[in-house]
Amino acid sequence: MADSPNCDLKSLSPLQLFERVTEQGEKVRALKAGKAPKDEIEAAVRMLLSLKLLYKTTTGQDYQAGLPPRDLVLINNGTSKEEDEDFVDPWTVQTSNAKGVDYDKLIVRFGSSKIDTDLINRIERATGQKPHRFLRRGIFFSHRDMDQILDAYENKKSFYLYTGRGPSSQAMHVGHLIPFIFTKWLQEVFDVPLVVQLTDDEKYLWKDLTIEKSYEYARENAKDIIACGFDINKTFIFSDLDYLGTSTGFYKNIVKVQKHVTFNQVKGIFGFTDSDCIGKISFPAIQAAPSFSSSFPQIFNGKDNIQCLIPCAIDQDPYFRMTRDVAPRIGQPKPALLHSVFFPALQGAQTKMSASDPNSSIFLTDTPKQIKTKINKHAFSGGRDTVEEHRKYGGNCDVDVSFMYLTFFLEDDDRLEQLKQAYTSGELLTGELKKVLIETLQPLIAAHQERRKQVTDEMVKQFMTPRKLAFEF
Ligand code: TRP
Fold first, then answer.
1. Which of 128, 337, 433, 458 could pair with 144 as two cysteines, CB 3.0-4.6 Å apart?
2. pTM (2 decimals)?
3. Is the CB of 197 under 6 A from ligand 1?
4. What is the pLDDT averaged over residues 177-197?
5. Does the beta carbon of 174 lie inside 6 Å of ligand 1?
């Protein structure tokens, strides 16, 4: 047996290395328990120590049993000592700060990169288009490998977009539109194919829903997605329950990912426990698979090397950290990512909205009157208690939900800046700010409802039919 980690070990990813240390630890325990010869135990212990050392030099962290390398782990994860840490995973977003999650800290903890002015300027140069307000205002704030996408694009190499939605209910709210509004813009300015995954399987596994119901929600949600204006010739929307069984490429990728991720790893990344059903445990492979072009042979002519760009809210990052770790080991390019902040609940930026609480957000089905009442009644205000105090001290835009919503939806930069100054100085009252938001959202939602009405079952069927898109590969 080798006494020190050999060269092969040096080429392991941090996660694989973590696995090796864990395995070796188990081996040492087994040898000791089995009362193996002393020199055999000592050799195994030496190996364990050198593996731990290699782990430390590779990741900069001490090996801790049950705790995979930090950039692959959910932040906090119950191990952090700091009490005011934010908690973010695909199911929970929690912060004690009224301004919302500290996104700069999140970038450091997740090990992603900030979308800075240089990158935004570069996107502008590459596309010849004014950057979307979500970029200008830091709503898409973090990325992985976006510069690589731009390098390739500038060299006339195409890529494709992948995003998705978990159809947990019929009711979608304005926050759910954020990734789709942005993805539509990306599709337009880069002129690339888009695949949209509807994870009806995921919602069946996680929620108290029948298969039939979640499948039905997927089709209903598809209408809202289509109503965002995607090009039918360039977009493939699929329900997992439908597409997985029919595709010749998709399931192969699922199995490849499954072979390269252990139970220990998903426990570390997603916090699964021994009592979670095996459907949940293997689900991350299903969300990973669309990151590989070979999952869509009909679109990419069987090519497996077309790079993927995933716009999503930052809470989906754990899935794609896992995907990026696996990609090189199954001979596929790592997907690039663009991360958005969370859309705040009407009650404040401390938590993500819930589709089950009708007052926590503006729904795409709300009437103009409901929009008005909800904002006036429930939108958390950064204004002062009395008009006199407000005039004297001014309001706080950092915690004011109406102002936050306007940064998402008011297109005019100058107007937004004027509102900010007027509110901060006390010149503009909360009621007046709310009125601006109401007048911004009412026509926007009405227009969405109008477009959604135009979406026929026939169109849904077309978008959801596996087919070649308007691109040659
Ligand atoms: N899991 C996501 C949700 O619950 C849905 C999803 C699947 C997704 N694939 C994606 C989101 C890719 C963003 C990007 O909403």
1. 337
2. 0.83
3. yes
4. 97
5. no
